[in-house]
Specification:
Elements lengths: L11 E9 L12 H15 L6 H13 L4 H11 L7 E3 L8 H4 L9 H14 L3 H8 L1 E9 L4 H15 L11 E3 L10 E6 L1
Antiparallel strand pairs: 1-3, 2-4, 3-5
Organism: Lysinibacillus agricola
Protein name: Group-specific protein
């Protein structure tokens, strides 16, 4: 029989990892991918500084969303077309954000995957390094938020993480678990801290 009910807690804190402009105050909350796509495309259009006029930029976008053969374009289409990839996503253990290589995760503080999925095909087609421009105007960011999602499993993950830290063991994927919003944005009132690194 589980003793989980003894703990009497009703919230879980999560850490969303990203890279965004330093003036982003997440006024609209933590947006799902579909809710944020227009903002991302608008930002990237600005960063390419007139290299392409708006009509050609729109042609590039349409191609990326439909028939561009790039591997990254395929990843973009997969993520943009299915809410299962819409997030927003977050980590249970904040420190894991700084051990992406050790545990085999994407470095979300380095650059969001969806930005790579746009910038790499753009560079392949036009020879313009949009990714470097993005990195220059953005900062790594951790957004702490709360949910009423409470599971005994989360306690096990925290204990496993603490065990690894205490014994100076290498961290692995079992030292963390992730939150998935399944395409539903997190409201601003659930955000507890916005930390730019």
């Amino acid at each position: 029989m589980s003793n989980f009910s003894q703990f009497q807690y009703d919230k879980t804190f999560w850490f969303h990892l990203s890279r965004t402009t330093p003036f982003n105050n997440f006024k609209e909350g933590l947006l799902s991918l579909n809710d944020n796509l227009e903002n991302l495309w608008d930002l990237l259009f600005t960063l390419q500084e007139g290299f392409l006029p708006k009509d050609e930029w729109n042609i590039f976008r349409k191609s990326l969303e439909s028939d561009c053969p790039s591997h990254f374009a395929s990843l973009y289409r997969m993520k943009a077309s299915d809410k299962i990839h819409g997030g927003p996503f977050a980590m249970l253990i904040r420190e894991v954000a700084f051990h992406s290589e050790e545990i085999g995760n994407h470095n979300y503080l380095g650059v969001p995957e969806i930005i790579e999925d746009i910038c790499f095909p753009f560079q392949e087609k036009y020879g313009f390094d949009l990714l470097t421009k993005f990195k220059k105007v953005t900062l790594p960011c951790i957004v702490k938020f709360e949910t009423t999602d409470v599971e005994e499993y989360h306690l096990g993950v925290v204990i496993n993480f603490l065990y690894h830290k205490y014994h100076s063991l290498e961290l692995n994927l079992d030292c963390n678990t992730c939150f998935d919003g399944y395409g539903k944005s997190i409201p601003n009132k659930a955000l507890l801290q916005i930390e730019y690194l």
